[in-house]
Amino acid sequence: MAARADSLELLLEASLLLSSKLEVAELLETILKLSTRVVDAERASVLLVDPDTQELYFDVALGLDPAPARIRLPKGQGIAGACALEGKTLVINDVRSDPRWSSSVDKESGFVTRSILASPMTVRGRVIGVVEAINRREAGFSQDDVRIFEAFAAQAAAAVENALLFATVREEKARLDTVFTRMTDGALLTDESGAVVLANGAAAKQLGPCCRKGSRLEGAFEGFVMKPGPADLLASPQAHLDFEAEREEPKPLILAGTASLVHYDRPGARGTSSTGRLLVFRDVTAQRREEVLKRNFLSLISHKLKTPLAAITGYSEVIVDESAHTSVPPVIRDAARTIQAQGNKLAELVEKLLNFTVLEDLKNAQMVLEAVEVDALVAEAAAALQEWLAERDGRVECRPAPGLRVWGDKVLLRDVVKNLIENGVKFTGRAGRVEVWAEPAGDEVALCVRDSGPGIPPEDQEKVFDKFYQVEASFTGQVEGWGLGLPFAKKVVEKHGGRIALESAIGAGTTVRVWLPARAPSAGREART
Q1: Residue 500: phi, psi to the nearest 5?
Q2: Which of 101, 181, 380, 504 makes a 20 to 30 Å CA pair with 408?
Q3: Per the omega criterion (within 30 degrees of 0), is the bond before 68 cis?
Q4: How far apart are CA 134 and CA 43, in angstroms?
Q5: Is the pTM of this model over 0.70?
Q6: What is the pLDDT of residues 177-228, one digit of tens each?
Q7: Cβ neighbours around 268 below 10 Å, total
Q8: At 437, is the pLDDT very low, low, confident or very high (cuts 50, 70, 90)?
Protein backbone atom coordinates (compact mmCIF):
# COMPACT_ATOMS: atom_id res chain seq x y z
CA MET A 1 0.00 0.00 0.00
CA ALA A 2 2.88 2.33 0.85
CA ALA A 3 4.44 1.76 -2.59
CA ARG A 4 1.09 2.43 -4.28
CA ALA A 5 0.65 5.65 -2.30
CA ASP A 6 4.17 6.74 -3.26
CA SER A 7 3.40 6.06 -6.93
CA LEU A 8 0.16 8.08 -6.82
CA GLU A 9 1.94 10.93 -5.09
CA LEU A 10 4.68 10.85 -7.72
CA LEU A 11 2.13 10.88 -10.55
CA LEU A 12 0.38 13.84 -8.96
CA GLU A 13 3.69 15.67 -8.68
CA ALA A 14 4.46 14.80 -12.31
CA SER A 15 1.07 16.08 -13.42
CA LEU A 16 1.63 19.42 -11.66
CA LEU A 17 5.11 19.78 -13.11
CA LEU A 18 4.11 18.87 -16.66
CA SER A 19 1.08 21.15 -16.71
CA SER A 20 3.25 24.10 -15.67
CA LYS A 21 5.58 23.81 -18.71
CA LEU A 22 4.75 25.36 -22.07
CA GLU A 23 8.24 25.61 -23.54
CA VAL A 24 8.89 22.43 -25.57
CA ALA A 25 12.58 22.14 -24.63
CA GLU A 26 11.93 22.62 -20.92
CA LEU A 27 8.99 20.22 -21.01
CA LEU A 28 10.95 17.43 -22.72
CA GLU A 29 13.76 17.75 -20.19
CA THR A 30 11.17 17.49 -17.39
CA ILE A 31 9.67 14.37 -19.00
CA LEU A 32 13.12 12.76 -19.18
CA LYS A 33 13.79 13.42 -15.51
CA LEU A 34 10.35 12.24 -14.37
CA SER A 35 10.48 9.12 -16.58
CA THR A 36 13.41 7.77 -14.59
CA ARG A 37 11.80 8.59 -11.25
CA VAL A 38 8.34 7.05 -11.79
CA VAL A 39 9.78 3.56 -12.51
CA ASP A 40 13.25 3.92 -10.90
CA ALA A 41 15.16 3.67 -14.20
CA GLU A 42 18.73 4.69 -15.01
CA ARG A 43 17.89 6.64 -18.14
CA ALA A 44 15.00 7.73 -20.33
CA SER A 45 14.38 8.93 -23.88
CA VAL A 46 11.62 10.83 -25.63
CA LEU A 47 10.94 10.57 -29.34
CA LEU A 48 8.36 12.67 -31.20
CA VAL A 49 6.44 11.82 -34.37
CA ASP A 50 7.15 14.08 -37.35
CA PRO A 51 3.63 14.97 -38.62
CA ASP A 52 4.90 15.25 -42.20
CA THR A 53 6.96 12.06 -42.54
CA GLN A 54 5.43 10.07 -39.63
CA GLU A 55 8.98 9.21 -38.52
CA LEU A 56 10.18 9.19 -34.92
CA TYR A 57 12.97 11.63 -34.02
CA PHE A 58 14.81 12.98 -30.98
CA ASP A 59 14.08 16.70 -30.53
CA VAL A 60 17.23 18.79 -30.96
CA ALA A 61 16.22 20.82 -27.91
CA LEU A 62 17.37 17.93 -25.70
CA GLY A 63 21.00 18.61 -26.60
CA LEU A 64 21.76 14.98 -27.36
CA ASP A 65 24.98 13.56 -28.72
CA PRO A 66 25.26 13.71 -32.54
CA ALA A 67 24.58 9.99 -33.02
CA PRO A 68 21.11 9.78 -31.41
CA ALA A 69 20.20 13.27 -32.63
CA ARG A 70 20.50 12.08 -36.25
CA ILE A 71 18.32 9.00 -35.78
CA ARG A 72 14.94 8.97 -37.52
CA LEU A 73 12.90 5.79 -37.15
CA PRO A 74 10.00 4.87 -39.41
CA LYS A 75 7.03 3.53 -37.49
CA GLY A 76 7.54 -0.20 -37.00
CA GLN A 77 11.33 -0.03 -36.90
CA GLY A 78 13.07 -0.69 -33.60
CA ILE A 79 11.37 -0.98 -30.23
CA ALA A 80 10.24 2.67 -30.22
CA GLY A 81 8.97 2.35 -33.80
CA ALA A 82 7.03 -0.80 -32.94
CA CYS A 83 5.52 0.94 -29.91
CA ALA A 84 4.40 3.87 -32.08
CA LEU A 85 2.99 1.63 -34.80
CA GLU A 86 1.08 -0.68 -32.45
CA GLY A 87 0.05 2.13 -30.09
CA LYS A 88 0.64 0.02 -26.98
CA THR A 89 3.22 -0.30 -24.24
CA LEU A 90 6.14 -2.70 -24.78
CA VAL A 91 8.18 -4.27 -21.96
CA ILE A 92 11.52 -5.84 -22.89
CA ASN A 93 13.55 -6.91 -19.85
CA ASP A 94 16.28 -8.47 -22.01
CA VAL A 95 16.82 -6.33 -25.10
CA ARG A 96 19.41 -8.69 -26.62
CA SER A 97 16.77 -11.38 -26.97
CA ASP A 98 14.45 -9.05 -28.92
CA PRO A 99 15.14 -8.85 -32.69
CA ARG A 100 13.76 -5.28 -32.84
CA TRP A 101 16.57 -3.90 -30.68
CA SER A 102 19.69 -2.42 -32.32
CA SER A 103 23.02 -2.10 -30.48
CA SER A 104 24.37 0.64 -32.78
CA VAL A 105 23.53 3.50 -30.41
CA ASP A 106 25.11 1.66 -27.47
CA LYS A 107 28.30 1.14 -29.48
CA GLU A 108 28.57 4.86 -30.33
CA SER A 109 27.59 6.13 -26.88
CA GLY A 110 29.30 3.49 -24.71
CA PHE A 111 26.10 2.98 -22.70
CA VAL A 112 24.86 -0.59 -22.07
CA THR A 113 21.12 -1.09 -22.46
CA ARG A 114 19.64 -4.05 -20.57
CA SER A 115 15.88 -3.40 -20.44
CA ILE A 116 13.37 -0.98 -21.97
CA LEU A 117 9.84 0.07 -21.02
CA ALA A 118 8.33 1.97 -23.98
CA SER A 119 4.91 3.62 -23.87
CA PRO A 120 3.16 5.60 -26.64
CA MET A 121 2.15 9.21 -26.00
CA THR A 122 -1.36 9.28 -27.41
CA VAL A 123 -3.72 12.23 -27.89
CA ARG A 124 -7.28 11.54 -29.12
CA GLY A 125 -6.23 8.20 -30.59
CA ARG A 126 -3.21 9.70 -32.37
CA VAL A 127 0.35 8.73 -31.36
CA ILE A 128 2.47 11.90 -31.11
CA GLY A 129 5.56 10.27 -29.61
CA VAL A 130 7.10 7.55 -27.49
CA VAL A 131 8.60 7.80 -23.99
CA GLU A 132 11.06 5.11 -22.89
CA ALA A 133 12.47 4.17 -19.50
CA ILE A 134 15.80 2.34 -19.81
CA ASN A 135 17.40 -0.11 -17.33
CA ARG A 136 15.35 -0.47 -14.17
CA ARG A 137 17.76 -0.22 -11.25
CA GLU A 138 16.47 -3.29 -9.43
CA ALA A 139 15.25 -6.40 -11.26
CA GLY A 140 13.13 -5.92 -14.38
CA PHE A 141 10.10 -3.78 -15.20
CA SER A 142 6.92 -5.14 -13.59
CA GLN A 143 3.23 -4.82 -14.47
CA ASP A 144 2.93 -2.20 -11.73
CA ASP A 145 5.63 -0.25 -13.54
CA VAL A 146 3.64 -0.60 -16.79
CA ARG A 147 0.47 0.84 -15.22
CA ILE A 148 2.32 3.73 -13.63
CA PHE A 149 4.32 4.46 -16.78
CA GLU A 150 1.22 4.40 -19.01
CA ALA A 151 -0.49 6.91 -16.72
CA PHE A 152 2.63 9.07 -16.83
CA ALA A 153 2.83 8.76 -20.66
CA ALA A 154 -0.78 9.96 -20.94
CA GLN A 155 0.05 13.02 -18.81
CA ALA A 156 3.19 13.66 -20.86
CA ALA A 157 1.25 13.36 -24.13
CA ALA A 158 -1.27 16.01 -23.09
CA ALA A 159 1.52 18.32 -21.97
CA VAL A 160 3.54 17.84 -25.19
CA GLU A 161 0.47 18.45 -27.34
CA ASN A 162 -0.26 21.69 -25.49
CA ALA A 163 3.36 22.82 -25.73
CA LEU A 164 3.55 22.07 -29.46
CA LEU A 165 0.30 23.94 -30.07
CA PHE A 166 1.58 26.84 -28.00
CA ALA A 167 4.84 26.87 -29.98
CA THR A 168 2.92 26.80 -33.28
CA VAL A 169 0.62 29.62 -32.21
CA ARG A 170 3.58 31.66 -30.97
CA GLU A 171 5.51 31.13 -34.20
CA GLU A 172 2.46 32.07 -36.25
CA LYS A 173 1.90 35.15 -34.11
CA ALA A 174 5.55 36.14 -34.48
CA ARG A 175 5.29 35.65 -38.23
CA LEU A 176 2.12 37.74 -38.41
CA ASP A 177 3.62 40.38 -36.15
CA THR A 178 6.65 40.58 -38.43
CA VAL A 179 4.47 40.94 -41.52
CA PHE A 180 2.18 43.42 -39.76
CA THR A 181 5.00 45.64 -38.50
CA ARG A 182 7.19 45.49 -41.61
CA MET A 183 4.54 45.89 -44.28
CA THR A 184 4.81 49.20 -46.12
CA ASP A 185 1.04 49.61 -46.30
CA GLY A 186 -0.68 51.13 -43.28
CA ALA A 187 -2.68 48.58 -41.27
CA LEU A 188 -5.14 49.38 -38.52
CA LEU A 189 -7.41 46.95 -36.64
CA THR A 190 -10.54 48.15 -34.87
CA ASP A 191 -13.11 46.39 -32.73
CA GLU A 192 -16.83 46.39 -33.52
CA SER A 193 -17.29 49.76 -31.82
CA GLY A 194 -14.57 51.43 -33.88
CA ALA A 195 -11.86 51.53 -31.19
CA VAL A 196 -8.32 50.96 -32.49
CA VAL A 197 -6.91 47.61 -31.29
CA LEU A 198 -3.68 47.54 -33.31
CA ALA A 199 -1.86 49.91 -35.67
CA ASN A 200 1.42 49.21 -37.45
CA GLY A 201 4.32 51.59 -37.98
CA ALA A 202 3.25 52.57 -41.49
CA ALA A 203 -0.18 53.62 -40.20
CA ALA A 204 1.45 55.67 -37.43
CA LYS A 205 3.66 57.46 -39.99
CA GLN A 206 0.69 58.33 -42.20
CA LEU A 207 -1.83 59.19 -39.49
CA GLY A 208 0.38 60.34 -36.64
CA PRO A 209 -0.09 59.65 -32.92
CA CYS A 210 -3.88 59.96 -33.22
CA CYS A 211 -4.09 56.30 -34.33
CA ARG A 212 -2.75 54.95 -31.04
CA LYS A 213 -4.41 51.97 -29.36
CA GLY A 214 -7.76 52.83 -27.81
CA SER A 215 -8.46 55.83 -30.04
CA ARG A 216 -11.60 55.92 -32.17
CA LEU A 217 -11.54 55.31 -35.93
CA GLU A 218 -12.82 58.83 -36.61
CA GLY A 219 -10.09 60.15 -34.32
CA ALA A 220 -7.40 58.13 -36.11
CA PHE A 221 -8.46 59.79 -39.37
CA GLU A 222 -8.92 63.24 -37.81
CA GLY A 223 -8.69 65.97 -40.46
CA PHE A 224 -9.54 63.48 -43.25
CA VAL A 225 -12.77 63.17 -45.20
CA MET A 226 -13.52 59.44 -45.44
CA LYS A 227 -15.67 57.84 -48.15
CA PRO A 228 -17.58 55.95 -46.87
CA GLY A 229 -17.59 57.64 -43.47
CA PRO A 230 -16.35 55.83 -40.34
CA ALA A 231 -19.89 55.02 -39.12
CA ASP A 232 -20.98 53.63 -42.50
CA LEU A 233 -17.74 51.68 -42.84
CA LEU A 234 -18.19 49.99 -39.45
CA ALA A 235 -21.90 49.28 -40.00
CA SER A 236 -21.50 47.82 -43.49
CA PRO A 237 -22.20 44.06 -43.76
CA GLN A 238 -19.79 43.71 -46.71
CA ALA A 239 -16.79 41.48 -46.04
CA HIS A 240 -14.49 43.80 -48.02
CA LEU A 241 -15.16 47.48 -48.52
CA ASP A 242 -13.00 49.93 -50.49
CA PHE A 243 -12.51 53.32 -48.87
CA GLU A 244 -10.65 56.59 -49.35
CA ALA A 245 -9.54 59.25 -46.89
CA GLU A 246 -8.52 62.68 -48.15
CA ARG A 247 -6.88 65.55 -46.29
CA GLU A 248 -6.12 69.06 -47.55
CA GLU A 249 -4.04 70.53 -44.70
CA PRO A 250 -1.19 70.87 -43.87
CA LYS A 251 -0.61 69.36 -47.31
CA PRO A 252 -2.78 67.20 -49.56
CA LEU A 253 -2.79 63.50 -48.66
CA ILE A 254 -5.00 60.78 -50.10
CA LEU A 255 -5.08 57.32 -48.52
CA ALA A 256 -6.93 54.49 -50.24
CA GLY A 257 -7.43 50.87 -49.28
CA THR A 258 -9.76 48.12 -48.16
CA ALA A 259 -11.58 47.54 -44.87
CA SER A 260 -12.15 43.82 -44.22
CA LEU A 261 -14.29 42.13 -41.59
CA VAL A 262 -12.12 40.04 -39.25
CA HIS A 263 -12.70 37.84 -36.19
CA TYR A 264 -10.05 37.91 -33.47
CA ASP A 265 -9.58 36.92 -29.84
CA ARG A 266 -10.04 39.70 -27.33
CA PRO A 267 -6.71 40.58 -25.67
CA GLY A 268 -6.76 39.38 -22.06
CA ALA A 269 -10.09 37.60 -22.53
CA ARG A 270 -9.16 34.07 -23.53
CA GLY A 271 -11.87 32.14 -25.32
CA THR A 272 -13.88 35.21 -26.32
CA SER A 273 -13.79 36.64 -29.83
CA SER A 274 -14.71 39.94 -31.39
CA THR A 275 -15.57 41.13 -34.88
CA GLY A 276 -13.83 44.21 -36.16
CA ARG A 277 -12.43 45.87 -39.26
CA LEU A 278 -8.89 45.53 -40.60
CA LEU A 279 -8.06 48.63 -42.64
CA VAL A 280 -5.12 48.25 -45.02
CA PHE A 281 -4.27 51.41 -46.95
CA ARG A 282 -1.53 53.26 -48.76
CA ASP A 283 -0.65 56.78 -49.87
CA VAL A 284 -2.04 57.31 -53.40
CA THR A 285 -1.61 61.10 -53.48
CA ALA A 286 1.04 61.04 -56.23
CA GLN A 287 -0.94 58.48 -58.22
CA ARG A 288 -4.12 60.59 -58.08
CA ARG A 289 -2.20 63.74 -58.95
CA GLU A 290 -0.73 61.97 -61.95
CA GLU A 291 -4.20 60.78 -63.00
CA VAL A 292 -5.52 64.35 -62.82
CA LEU A 293 -2.58 65.60 -64.86
CA LYS A 294 -3.20 62.90 -67.46
CA ARG A 295 -6.89 63.76 -67.66
CA ASN A 296 -6.14 67.47 -67.95
CA PHE A 297 -3.52 66.82 -70.60
CA LEU A 298 -5.81 64.57 -72.64
CA SER A 299 -8.68 67.01 -72.29
CA LEU A 300 -6.44 69.91 -73.37
CA ILE A 301 -5.10 67.97 -76.35
CA SER A 302 -8.61 66.95 -77.36
CA HIS A 303 -9.88 70.53 -77.24
CA LYS A 304 -6.82 71.85 -79.11
CA LEU A 305 -7.28 69.25 -81.86
CA LYS A 306 -10.98 69.92 -82.36
CA THR A 307 -10.55 73.37 -83.98
CA PRO A 308 -8.02 72.38 -86.69
CA LEU A 309 -9.90 69.12 -87.27
CA ALA A 310 -13.13 71.05 -87.82
CA ALA A 311 -11.35 73.10 -90.48
CA ILE A 312 -9.82 70.02 -92.12
CA THR A 313 -13.06 68.04 -92.26
CA GLY A 314 -15.14 71.09 -93.24
CA TYR A 315 -12.92 72.27 -96.07
CA SER A 316 -12.25 68.73 -97.30
CA GLU A 317 -16.02 68.25 -97.61
CA VAL A 318 -16.23 71.47 -99.68
CA ILE A 319 -13.38 70.32 -101.92
CA VAL A 320 -15.01 66.91 -102.42
CA ASP A 321 -18.36 68.54 -103.34
CA GLU A 322 -16.71 71.02 -105.71
CA SER A 323 -14.59 68.36 -107.38
CA ALA A 324 -17.74 66.40 -108.15
CA HIS A 325 -19.06 69.30 -110.27
CA THR A 326 -15.85 70.59 -111.79
CA SER A 327 -13.15 69.15 -113.94
CA VAL A 328 -10.20 68.32 -111.68
CA PRO A 329 -7.53 65.68 -112.03
CA PRO A 330 -8.59 62.32 -110.48
CA VAL A 331 -5.63 62.39 -108.10
CA ILE A 332 -6.92 65.61 -106.49
CA ARG A 333 -10.44 64.19 -106.19
CA ASP A 334 -9.08 61.01 -104.56
CA ALA A 335 -6.82 63.03 -102.27
CA ALA A 336 -9.75 65.17 -101.13
CA ARG A 337 -11.84 62.10 -100.36
CA THR A 338 -8.97 60.52 -98.43
CA ILE A 339 -8.44 63.70 -96.41
CA GLN A 340 -12.15 63.85 -95.66
CA ALA A 341 -12.37 60.17 -94.60
CA GLN A 342 -9.23 60.27 -92.42
CA GLY A 343 -10.22 63.63 -90.95
CA ASN A 344 -13.63 62.26 -89.97
CA LYS A 345 -11.97 59.21 -88.43
CA LEU A 346 -9.57 61.36 -86.43
CA ALA A 347 -12.41 63.65 -85.35
CA GLU A 348 -14.32 60.61 -84.11
CA LEU A 349 -11.29 59.41 -82.13
CA VAL A 350 -10.77 62.82 -80.57
CA GLU A 351 -14.46 62.98 -79.64
CA LYS A 352 -14.18 59.61 -77.89
CA LEU A 353 -11.07 60.70 -76.04
CA LEU A 354 -12.77 63.91 -74.93
CA ASN A 355 -15.88 62.02 -73.81
CA PHE A 356 -13.77 59.65 -71.72
CA THR A 357 -11.85 62.45 -69.99
CA VAL A 358 -15.13 64.23 -69.22
CA LEU A 359 -16.62 60.98 -67.87
CA GLU A 360 -13.76 60.51 -65.38
CA ASP A 361 -14.66 63.82 -63.72
CA LEU A 362 -18.42 63.27 -63.93
CA LYS A 363 -20.16 63.36 -60.55
CA ASN A 364 -23.11 61.11 -59.80
CA ALA A 365 -25.29 64.15 -59.15
CA GLN A 366 -24.68 65.29 -62.74
CA MET A 367 -26.31 62.19 -64.22
CA VAL A 368 -29.95 62.40 -65.33
CA LEU A 369 -31.44 59.21 -63.91
CA GLU A 370 -34.71 57.82 -65.20
CA ALA A 371 -36.42 54.60 -66.24
CA VAL A 372 -35.17 53.76 -69.74
CA GLU A 373 -36.74 51.27 -72.17
CA VAL A 374 -34.04 48.80 -73.19
CA ASP A 375 -35.43 48.40 -76.73
CA ALA A 376 -35.38 52.18 -77.23
CA LEU A 377 -31.84 52.34 -75.86
CA VAL A 378 -30.57 49.69 -78.29
CA ALA A 379 -32.49 51.21 -81.22
CA GLU A 380 -30.96 54.64 -80.63
CA ALA A 381 -27.46 53.18 -80.37
CA ALA A 382 -27.91 51.21 -83.61
CA ALA A 383 -29.38 54.26 -85.41
CA ALA A 384 -26.40 56.41 -84.37
CA LEU A 385 -24.11 53.80 -85.97
CA GLN A 386 -26.12 53.35 -89.16
CA GLU A 387 -23.66 55.05 -91.54
CA TRP A 388 -20.65 53.58 -89.77
CA LEU A 389 -22.16 50.07 -90.03
CA ALA A 390 -22.99 50.58 -93.70
CA GLU A 391 -19.35 51.48 -94.47
CA ARG A 392 -18.18 48.25 -92.85
CA ASP A 393 -21.03 46.04 -93.98
CA GLY A 394 -21.67 45.39 -90.31
CA ARG A 395 -24.58 43.10 -89.42
CA VAL A 396 -26.27 43.67 -86.06
CA GLU A 397 -29.21 41.56 -84.89
CA CYS A 398 -31.21 43.11 -82.03
CA ARG A 399 -33.67 40.83 -80.25
CA PRO A 400 -36.70 42.63 -78.82
CA ALA A 401 -37.06 42.78 -75.05
CA PRO A 402 -40.54 44.32 -74.60
CA GLY A 403 -41.24 45.81 -71.19
CA LEU A 404 -37.65 45.62 -69.89
CA ARG A 405 -36.36 48.83 -68.35
CA VAL A 406 -33.18 49.93 -66.65
CA TRP A 407 -32.58 52.81 -64.27
CA GLY A 408 -29.92 55.22 -65.45
CA ASP A 409 -28.73 58.09 -67.60
CA LYS A 410 -30.12 57.43 -71.07
CA VAL A 411 -27.37 59.27 -72.97
CA LEU A 412 -24.54 57.52 -71.14
CA LEU A 413 -26.16 54.09 -71.40
CA ARG A 414 -26.82 54.60 -75.10
CA ASP A 415 -23.12 55.33 -75.58
CA VAL A 416 -22.29 52.13 -73.66
CA VAL A 417 -24.41 50.05 -76.05
CA LYS A 418 -22.94 51.96 -78.99
CA ASN A 419 -19.38 51.22 -77.85
CA LEU A 420 -20.12 47.54 -77.31
CA ILE A 421 -21.68 47.20 -80.77
CA GLU A 422 -18.77 49.07 -82.38
CA ASN A 423 -16.31 46.85 -80.56
CA GLY A 424 -18.12 43.69 -81.67
CA VAL A 425 -18.31 44.78 -85.32
CA LYS A 426 -14.61 45.74 -85.42
CA PHE A 427 -13.57 42.33 -84.09
CA THR A 428 -16.07 40.37 -86.17
CA GLY A 429 -15.30 41.84 -89.58
CA ARG A 430 -17.48 41.76 -92.67
CA ALA A 431 -18.12 38.03 -92.60
CA GLY A 432 -19.49 37.89 -89.08
CA ARG A 433 -22.40 39.26 -87.09
CA VAL A 434 -23.14 40.89 -83.77
CA GLU A 435 -26.13 39.97 -81.60
CA VAL A 436 -27.70 42.23 -79.00
CA TRP A 437 -30.29 41.11 -76.45
CA ALA A 438 -31.46 41.73 -72.91
CA GLU A 439 -32.95 39.52 -70.19
CA PRO A 440 -34.19 40.00 -66.63
CA ALA A 441 -31.76 39.05 -63.83
CA GLY A 442 -33.52 39.50 -60.49
CA ASP A 443 -33.36 43.18 -59.52
CA GLU A 444 -31.18 43.81 -62.56
CA VAL A 445 -31.35 43.61 -66.33
CA ALA A 446 -28.56 41.84 -68.20
CA LEU A 447 -27.72 43.51 -71.51
CA CYS A 448 -25.64 41.25 -73.75
CA VAL A 449 -23.58 41.84 -76.91
CA ARG A 450 -22.06 38.84 -78.67
CA ASP A 451 -19.67 38.83 -81.64
CA SER A 452 -18.32 35.99 -83.74
CA GLY A 453 -14.78 37.29 -83.92
CA PRO A 454 -11.47 35.56 -83.09
CA GLY A 455 -12.06 35.76 -79.33
CA ILE A 456 -9.79 37.22 -76.67
CA PRO A 457 -6.85 35.26 -75.18
CA PRO A 458 -7.33 34.44 -71.46
CA GLU A 459 -4.37 36.59 -70.39
CA ASP A 460 -5.94 39.67 -72.04
CA GLN A 461 -9.53 39.30 -70.83
CA GLU A 462 -9.07 41.45 -67.71
CA LYS A 463 -6.70 43.91 -69.38
CA VAL A 464 -9.16 44.95 -72.10
CA PHE A 465 -10.99 47.00 -69.44
CA ASP A 466 -7.83 49.09 -68.86
CA LYS A 467 -7.51 52.46 -70.57
CA PHE A 468 -5.77 52.40 -73.97
CA TYR A 469 -5.19 48.64 -73.86
CA GLN A 470 -5.75 46.79 -77.11
CA VAL A 471 -5.19 43.14 -77.97
CA GLU A 472 -2.38 42.89 -80.50
CA ALA A 473 -3.47 43.76 -84.03
CA SER A 474 -1.54 40.74 -85.34
CA PHE A 475 -4.04 38.55 -83.47
CA THR A 476 -7.30 40.47 -83.92
CA GLY A 477 -6.67 42.32 -87.18
CA GLN A 478 -8.26 45.35 -85.44
CA VAL A 479 -6.24 48.56 -85.22
CA GLU A 480 -8.90 51.28 -85.06
CA GLY A 481 -9.63 53.27 -81.92
CA TRP A 482 -7.93 54.26 -78.69
CA GLY A 483 -8.77 51.17 -76.69
CA LEU A 484 -11.36 53.17 -74.72
CA GLY A 485 -14.61 51.40 -75.66
CA LEU A 486 -14.68 48.79 -72.91
CA PRO A 487 -13.06 51.06 -70.26
CA PHE A 488 -15.73 53.68 -71.05
CA ALA A 489 -18.49 51.08 -70.72
CA LYS A 490 -17.05 49.76 -67.45
CA LYS A 491 -16.81 53.22 -65.89
CA VAL A 492 -20.36 54.19 -66.90
CA VAL A 493 -21.81 50.89 -65.68
CA GLU A 494 -20.04 51.17 -62.32
CA LYS A 495 -21.29 54.74 -61.89
CA HIS A 496 -24.80 53.25 -62.23
CA GLY A 497 -24.08 50.66 -59.54
CA GLY A 498 -23.89 47.88 -62.13
CA ARG A 499 -21.18 45.51 -63.29
CA ILE A 500 -19.67 44.28 -66.55
CA ALA A 501 -17.98 41.03 -67.55
CA LEU A 502 -17.01 39.18 -70.67
CA GLU A 503 -16.80 35.57 -71.74
CA SER A 504 -14.52 34.65 -74.60
CA ALA A 505 -12.93 31.64 -76.22
CA ILE A 506 -10.31 31.56 -78.94
CA GLY A 507 -12.06 31.10 -82.29
CA ALA A 508 -15.54 31.24 -80.73
CA GLY A 509 -16.16 34.97 -80.31
CA THR A 510 -16.81 37.14 -77.28
CA THR A 511 -19.90 37.96 -75.21
CA VAL A 512 -19.96 41.10 -73.08
CA ARG A 513 -22.65 41.25 -70.36
CA VAL A 514 -23.69 44.40 -68.57
CA TRP A 515 -25.90 44.20 -65.45
CA LEU A 516 -27.83 47.38 -64.68
CA PRO A 517 -30.40 48.13 -61.95
CA ALA A 518 -33.95 47.50 -63.15
CA ARG A 519 -35.41 50.25 -60.95
CA ALA A 520 -34.42 53.18 -58.78
CA PRO A 521 -32.89 52.33 -55.39
CA SER A 522 -35.41 52.70 -52.58
CA ALA A 523 -33.27 55.38 -50.95
CA GLY A 524 -31.69 56.58 -54.15
CA ARG A 525 -31.69 59.86 -55.98
CA GLU A 526 -34.78 61.22 -57.70
CA ALA A 527 -34.70 61.38 -61.47
CA ARG A 528 -34.03 64.87 -62.77
CA THR A 529 -35.52 66.37 -65.91
Answers
A1: -140, 145
A2: 504
A3: no
A4: 5
A5: no
A6: 665 666 778 888 888 888 888 788 888 888 887 777 778 888 888 888 888 8
A7: 6
A8: very high
